[in-house]
Every structure is written in C-alpha cells, then in structure tokens.
Write a structure and sequence with these properties.
304 residues
Amino acid sequence: MSHLLSQHKSHRKLTTLVENRTTYNAEYAELNIYETHIAAEQVALKFDFPIIASMLTGKKVMHIDGFDAFDFFPGESVVMPTNKEMIIDFPIATKTKPTQCLALGIDAFKIEEVVGKFNHRVAIENENNNWDIDQSASHLINNTDVNHLIERLTYTFTHSNTSKDVLLDLMIQELIVRLLQTKAKSLITNDTHIFNDTRIGTVIKFIKDNLTNKDITVDQLAAKAYMSTSHFHKQFKNTLGISPIDYINSEKIKFSKKLIKSSPHLRMSDIAYKSGFNNTSYFNRQFKKTEMMTPQQFKMSISG
C-alpha cells in the first residue's frame, strides 16, 4: 500500500521521528497516518473511539492485552475498541525505510447505525446473534476484502474530490459490515457453544463433522437450518460474508494443508481425495484461489 502515500508525502510535515502523525478528517471518520523513522520500543497508543489500524510498510511488534506479543506486517490489520491501549516496538524503522501505519477512527454513532442494520438483516427468528465491533480487539491476517477497502479509503482521504464525504460514508459502512462479518464468522466457527445456539452455527458444526464428505449440498445444509435453500444461502452469506460452498471449500483447503504438513509422502491426488474433493484439478484451483499458490508450491514452501 506504500504507493498510496505519494499524495500524503507531498503535504505532510515531519515533527518527530517516532509516530509522526498526520490526520485527515471526514464527516464520520478520521484517518491518521503514522510514520516512525528510528528504532523504538514501548511506544503507547490509545484512542477515545474505535479504530482499525493497518500496516503500510515495515514491521511492528504489538503488545495488546489478551494477546501474546505478535509481529505486525503490511497486509494485516488490528481492530481496537475504544480506550484500548497498544504498546508498540519498532525494530527495523530507519530514516530511509520508515515504518508506516494508518489508524482509521470511526464515529461511534455511525458504527451503532450500521451495526443495527446488520443485526436486523442477519437476525434469525428466536435467536440472539447480535454482533458488534467495539467490544474486543482482533487481529486480521490476509483479509482481502478489508485490505481492498482500506486501500480505497486511504486514497479517497488523501485526495481532493467533490464527492469525498459521500464516497467515504459508503466505504465506511461497507468496512463496518465486513468487520462484523469477520467477527461473526470467527465466533460462529470457533466458539463451540454458538454451534448449538444458532441455526447457522448448527450448519457449521455439521460441515466440520462431515468435512471430507464429497456430497454435501446447499439443499442439505438448508434443510439442517430449517430454511428454504434461497433464504439459507442469503442468510449464510449476509452473516459470514462468504457463500456456503466457498466456506466448505475453504475449510477443506485448511484440512488439506494439515495433511500436506503431516503426510508429505502423499501424492496431491491423494491429498485432494482425503480432503473431500472429487478431482485434483478442482482441488488445485480452489487451493490457489484461497492460498495464492498451488498445493505443490505450498508443499515446497514448508519443506525447508
């Protein structure tokens, strides 16, 4: 994303070498771009509104309550609730290669408005499945939809446009929905008690229990959720941001990666079959779609 900063660099002023801050304002949000030009440790940062922080260049080491310390690289984001403190190390920042990060703050009123619409849209009868983003921190890795939105937001914030506020409003609403879908997907797929509390959760459990079954259909999943096929497909995608078939394939790819790691002697055709795919070519396409590399390239990347 560093190419998006050309306009920013031509206008910003450097007043400090550690977390130099430039702010761009909009009606419901503000974009802060931080630049650090020397190695530093234990730099504290906190906001009085929810933010999504995304790395642009370089590397940080993040210390956030509830997480083990982790490396933070370009292409990754962290969602931080109001007044949640981050302690940050900058191990590789230099004058010629600064560490750059953005922090997008969103008005709490706007978040509540979009959250209300989202929960209304994904509500399932007699089930308590309300989602919010301003409750706990989360670390997003390789979330393509979120990354593309942040790129568009950064460009729009830093360039003059007569429709700037309207465009930003639409993108911010979409970003909040994407974050809600990410959180819903994480909770539904990883929290075992939700398996039994929601129809979508029950379907997710069925998929996990029958992952290598080659004959799972959307009609079958809809029946498990006691919905029509069309309503189920819409409900699933609205809630998780992914279609049922794409979700099944992504879970099968995760399973195949474990097989490649644990059984390197197996042929790729065997890996495909054991992972629930009917043929190797479809397996290869889905693997590359998900992992941005072929199964063979993945095997080589972990072979040492």
